[in-house]
Design a protein that fits this description.
- Helix content is 62%, strand content 2%.
- It is mainly alpha-helical.
- It has one domain (14-295).
- Strands 1-2 form a two-stranded antiparallel sheet.
- Helix 3 runs antiparallel to helix 7 (125-147), helix 5 packs parallel to helix 17 (287-295) and helix 7 packs antiparallel against helix 8.
- Residues 1-24 have low confidence and may be disordered.
- This is DUF2236 domain-containing protein.
- InterPro entries: MPAB/Lcp_cat_dom.
Amino acid sequence: MSIAEDQAPDVLTPDVESARASRGGTALPLGPDSLVWKYFADNRMALLGPRAAVLQNMLPSLGQGVEDHSVWFAETLARLQRSIPPIFNTVYGADGVAAGHEVRDFHKHIKGKLPDGKPYSALNPDTYYWAHATFIEHTITATNTFIKRLTEAEKEQLFRESITWFERYGVSSVGTPQTYAEFRVYWQNALDERLVAHRTAAYGVGYATKGWPRPKQIHPALWFLLKRPINAVSAVITIGGMPPEGREILGLPWDEGRERRYQRFASISRALSPLYARLPGKLRMHPIALRAYQREGRRA
């Protein structure tokens, strides 16, 4: 299942969104009892590396928008730091719809032409949904890999909660998956037929094969000692966190031995989950999520 890439942008008014929410349908609510709340802001999501960001930029329209309108190349970390809080507020904020509309409106000016001359817009429902799809897929995969093995019912629940999450942006959801089975078909189709090695995506994983440049604040002698372990760990997290199809498209090196070591690390992480749950909340989750649980009078 996919949405036509040349479909005109279709932004919903609050009244339309409210009407859709009142119908219920396949969506499940977000809140302190939801699985999206439980896992999306868990710090162990980082163990999957930049999977979501890289896969986003492999969709031609989205990668081109990032290249044309952002500071991705000049200020990669700064861009990520600015993007994360508004998205977290869409999930955890007291008014998630207002936060979602704010995120949507950030993208109104992001439009242009692809190298072949075709127009693109960040608010094209197909492009916008792909960005959202990478977040929910990242959450499901990271949880299943590093936190606990999810049942099919839990994956379904996470996905149906993500429908409510997407509706908060006020962008048309016509043609989007409505069950986890449909989402898996949509996702595999994207991996097999739609993603490319766009320059923004290749840049986002470049350090995994070339190594990190020395940060200005670190003395060259100290960096000489640190760079090898830092580069080794970041390469494993980044390349290991990509789906096999993504690795192939981007030409990232991987083999069976690395995969076995990666899976051993993942199994250790899952085994340590009971101990992780005993840590203070500020060590386990993003502060925005913690404040949301406190607002609801619940423990994260």
